């Protein structure tokens, strides 16, 4: 089932309101345009057919008018020749074609009204279709812009994440360097095994020197 059930639905439709209520505006506008285009083709075909019929009737009317004039001329000729009997018959034939002339004239008038109505409908529908196509173009531009914006935001978020990871890695490296420096300081502050033995050897030499000095003093006292 289509969006529009008849032509006047299309003409009276508020496209903006319909799009605002649609779950998928882009899909809705595409369906609108398709139905408008199909309806426009049908109306143009009907208009062309009505115009063709009008042309056909116009040719028939011209032929009937010729017949009316011809029988009137014959009636005049008969009267001029004193043949009233023939004149009456000629006028009777003229009346038949005159009646047909009146009928065809009315038919042409009706066809002209139909063609004018079709042309008016075509104009209104083309205006609606132009408006719908503009709306569709705007929706496409908005959709394209939204996609570009989404892509840009995704890239920015990705870059933010990359920056965050980079900052984390730098911070981790900094901590590791600080830990290494601390270990190096601790290693320098704590004496090595060789340093301990060197200290012991130094202490022993000092004690030996002290003992020798004391012995020397004692010896001098004893003398």
From TrEMBL:
GO biological processes: phage shock
One Pfam entry name: PspA_IM30
Coiled coil (UniProt feature): 101-142, 168-223
CC per GO annotation: cytosol
Claim: Membrane is one of the keywords in the record: no
Stored InterPro entries: Phageshock_PspA (IPR014319), PspA_VIPP1 (IPR007157)
Swiss-Prot/TrEMBL keywords: Coiled coil
Top-level taxonomic group: Bacteria
Coiled coil is among the record's keywords: yes
Family label: Belongs to the PspA/Vipp/IM30 family.
Protein name: Phage shock protein PspA
């Amino acid at each position: 089932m289509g969006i529009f059930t008849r032509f006047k639905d299309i003409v009276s439709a508020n496209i903006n309101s319909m799009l605002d209520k649609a779950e998928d505006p882009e899909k809705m506008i595409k369906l609108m345009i398709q139905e408008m285009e199909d309806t426009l083709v049908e109306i143009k075909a009907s208009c062309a057919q009505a115009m063709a019929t009008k042309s056909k009737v116009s040719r028939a009317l011209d032929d009937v008018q010729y017949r009316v004039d011809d029988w009137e001329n014959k009636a005049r000729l008969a009267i001029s020749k004193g043949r009233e009997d023939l004149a009456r018959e000629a006028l009777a034939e003229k009346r038949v074609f005159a009646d047909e002339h009146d009928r065809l004239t009315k038919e042409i008038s009706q066809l002209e009204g139909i063609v004018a109505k079709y042309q008016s409908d075509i104009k209104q529908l083309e205006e609606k279709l132009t408006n719908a196509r503009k709306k569709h173009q705007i929706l496409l531009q908005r959709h394209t812009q939204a996609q570009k914006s989404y892509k840009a935001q995704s890239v920015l978020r990705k870059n933010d994440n990359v920056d965050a990871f980079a900052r984390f890695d730098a911070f981790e490296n900094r901590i590791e360097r600080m830990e290494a420096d601390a270990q190096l300081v601790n290693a320098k502050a704590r004496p090595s095994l060789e340093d301990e033995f060197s200290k012991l050897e130094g202490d022993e030499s000092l004690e030996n020197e002290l003992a020798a000095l004391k012995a020397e003093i004692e010896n001098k006292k004893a003398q």
